[in-house]
């Protein structure tokens, strides 16, 4: 399993995929955070990162499918999947290895943004006046959200040989799981169970963790979410034989 | 018996790609799979290697079922699929090292050098796989199949698309490997069968129409040429 993980990660790093997606993520988040008047911290006047943390999930909806779309789709198209599956490795090991490699790449994209935390804490008055608990919680939330999106990405990639289709399915599923349940819960007919429906969405749990309160229920939600999608992926890959 | 297949079938809906075939393969002999396109050669090989699940029937590699003891069975198999799919973005040695790791091969660095020499990859060993010509890609394909020194080699059209010089090299290599291992190869080239195969199985429409040694097959058909025998059985 480690061999597959290593190969996946190295193939990200030796192709331009990793650098371009991470660079674009940092560029866009930097521009939105510091430069564009509508969302800039400098114009906003408060030295806090709330805006950044509500923005990144939307960037992830495009960044993560771009990272994960090739994982199974490309191997199936190129035929290398046939060699991979005939090695003495279990299908769940292949799935988890590919998932972890993509997740590490998401993490690589997230780490440089810690500099925003440093900058904003310097801008605060008095210096260092920032709600660190909330920032730490938000980063944990962002990581868990990334993990959930990545599992959707791996799942989408297993569905098809076509990377573009994998990208679109993943982006759509990410958007729906993030916002869809919230919007659905607002439909009048669902009023009696609105809370329950909203509770299924990622946004509800991500917001809760972002407040800086790490509740085990939210943690269990994210873990279950990823495990569920990886499990379905494993079944799809196994079933296609 | 290193390979033992009983009533193996693969159905796609109503179409029977492989229809209840049974055969065995022994160590030290090269078994040639012949048959027209679509006869079920590749499908059979894919079931033996665990890529496809049989609809019914059993296949065992050294007594290990390819379904219930898949991991154990796969350790004994080296496989070269049709068209030699490889990771084009990896370097030759990097790729062989990855393959070796998936089999948990001991003394991998030494083994990689050994295999590179064996298949004649030495002049190209520092290149990316995507940069190699077809002949050398085929050698990489063979190298990845033998890196863990498997007892069973399954090669799906290993010589398609090679030039005459490369053909001779690869055939010699297969013949050499076949001395100690159980080799199953599929091919369309009759001269190749005469040159390297000991036993022959001819498939047609998913069924075995001949299963004999090369001499036995010729004797049974009054010394006709292999091409005539092939056409007669598969027409």
UniProtKB/TrEMBL annotation, chain A:
Protein name: ABC-2 type transport system permease protein
Topological type in the membrane: Multi-pass membrane protein
tRNA processing among keywords: no
Keywords associated with the record: Cell membrane, Membrane, Transmembrane, Transmembrane helix
InterPro entries: ABC-2_transporter_component, Motility-assoc_ABC_perm_GldF
GO molecular function annotations of the record: ABC-type transporter activity
Residues annotated as transmembrane: 12-37, 49-67, 96-118, 138-157, 164-181, 219-237
GO cellular component terms given for this protein: plasma membrane
Superkingdom to which the source organism belongs: Bacteria
Organism placement in taxonomy: Bacteria, Pseudomonadati, Bacteroidota, Sphingobacteriia, Sphingobacteriales
Subcellular location: Cell membrane
UniProtKB/TrEMBL annotation, chain B:
PANTHER family (alphabetical): ABC TRANSPORTER, ATP-BINDING PROTEIN
Limits of the ABC transporter domain: 3-230
UniProt-recorded name of the protein: ABC-2 type transport system ATP-binding protein
Keywords: ATP-binding, Nucleotide-binding, Transport
Pfam families (alphabetical): ABC_tran (PF00005)
InterPro entries: AAA+_ATPase, ABC_transporter-like_ATP-bd, P-loop_NTPase
Family note: Belongs to the ABC transporter superfamily.
Source organism superkingdom: Bacteria
Molecular-function GO terms, alphabetical: ATP binding; ATP hydrolysis activity
